[in-house]
Predict the structure.
Amino acid sequence: MANDGQEGVELYKEHGNKIDLVLMDLHMPVMNGYEAAEEIRKIAPSVPIVAMTADVVLGVQGRCEQSGIHHYISKPFDPDRFIQTIKDIITEQGDSDAEDPPVLDRDAGLKNMGGDLELYQQVLNAYFKENQDTLDKLSNAVEEKRYADAAQIVHKIKGSSGSIGANILYELSIRLQKAFKEENEREIPSLHQEFSKVLRKLLEEIAEIQSQK
């Protein structure tokens, strides 16, 4: 719960890894709902933001879309319908996440290996083995605020991810490493969450490739 938009943004930055959906009042002091949604979108492109408003008209809908708000619940609302709407949005979001594009660009990775498929397979296997406990190590470092150690862990991932063709993770590693070096505790939670999600997906993709051999 937040008393205004600015407080809502700060709460999201701190607890974003535990938040599946945001209910956004459009008319708030300090920072209104549109502005708050825009700030949240900078760190969480896909979390559902739901406008809670009594004036769902064409102009409001257009401004909501521009601010990254794609769902609406009109006031006054029926509690049962409200709960069902929230369930539907979260289910829809889960289906959307399942359709995310692959993290690993195998063509790019193979090109980085000079087209040597056997070498590429060996590098993928080594990457998979080396990173079985990386997420646990990183989470421990973050929880203990050992940001220098965390930055070193991400630095190692950054180089090897770029080599195998995981450019999405490579770009994310650059941002997270920067946040650790600057001890930016406003950005670390959300970036750490996204980094963990992407690395976990990459390891699943490599495991699938290994099972096909």
Observations:
- Residues 188-211 form the longest helix (24 residues).
